[in-house]
Amino acid sequence: MSEFPLNIRLEPDKGTVEAWRKAASGIVKPADVEKALVLAINRTLSAVKTEALKQATSRYTIKRKDIADYFKTARATTSTMYAELTAESPRIPLLKFKVKPAAGFSFKGKPTEGRPSLFVQIRKDGGGPAKGLFVARLGREPGVYKRKGPKRFPLSSATGPSVVSMVGNKEAVDAIQTRARDMLAKRIDHEMTRLMEKM
Known about the structure:
This protein is α+β, with helices and mostly antiparallel strands. The chain is built from 4 helices and 11 strands.
């Protein structure tokens, strides 16, 4: 699957901004107009991040809390007047996805050696036995590992896809961008209308 880097820039349409500035001229202070626009952009940013998380968790067996920190936001200010949502792309530990012991076995109280293949489901529409993988605790938290050769050691950590891979397909990116565009226009109208109604 080809990846589309996730870099969503929220910047109001210049024509819309100028129209609102003109409508508010003589009614609302210019500084208050700028603050309302920034508020609209940043509230949209929160909604767009939620949409990006939804796109990932609707297709993959990973929890929102396990990927939220991979999304980075840059909030708008009155000097920049735009915001950005980006995603980092390190591969995520496989145990963050759906990993289960083979039928009839349990992780608890069972040694990892000699266990049948784990059942691994990364995408919600897939999954199956993963030969050669096992769960072990080598640090503070357990992880899924595989041997690099015929000997017991060394081991390598098994990982799933990156966040960029999960949301970096055209369908997901299009959905996020559409949500961003529609939401930003609505938020600007809402914040500016609310501001002028106060006067």
